[in-house]
Model the fold of this input.
Amino acid sequence: MGIDLSRQTMADWMIKSQLALQILYERLREILLQQAVIQADETTLNVLKEEKTTCYMWLYCCGTDSPNNKVLDAEDLSMPNIVLYDYQASRSGQCAVDFLAGYSGYLQVDGYQGYAKTPATLVACMAHMRRKFVEAQTAQAKGKTGKANWALNHIQKLYRIETRIRDLSAPEKYRIRQQEALPLLVALKDWLDKSVDNIPQQTTLGKAIGYTLRQWPKLIRYLDDGKLSIGRVGMWRSSLKTLFPHPAHQTGRALLTHPAFV
Done:
């Protein structure tokens, strides 16, 4: 018995598939919004046959960077790995407001003020701050070592702690961060306060320092709860490779990039 591949049959199949996927998407979104911590970001997307050539892909996720969500804390096992995309024509903060629908838990994001329109407790991403100092380091004279190097070395110490405690329970992460990360952050803040008046604000290093100081309360918020992450570049590396596995010139689609990638 042959398979009917008429246009009407294919159209019916596509409509049914769309409805099924929409139900799945909404269920995943419902579960996502129940989590204590959500990470979010947005990036430009060049789109063909749209009134606006530049649109935005918003990304929301929860869980860990590990595919198997490996944790030792039974309480953390209730936080599944979910990644959802929300295609929008603009970068308006209302896009996040609408998607998150009143979510008031922790929301880890970059410094974009649009997220402040949500009722969530914002947590900054250390990877975005680090990127600013990488740019300052690049702007230094070739072969020179300066203040940007000190900042990056200090930030690296914070990341080494996170690497070591990655698979520990949330309470253990909290305890170790209080003992080891907090003193490093206090030293970094002291350096920032002393440097801000001595570095011209228009330089790349001055901009990095200014950005860090403006974001400081949100940057150190990951100390408050072991479920929080120092930063979530991993969610972009893994999820965007899945969505766009081939270079733009091979697929005709834009290759999404992210400013936290180094």
About this structure: Helices lie at 7-32, 93-100, 126-139, 147-165, 170-195, 204-219, 233-243, 248-251. The chain has a mean pLDDT of 83. The chain is about 45% helix and 15% strand.
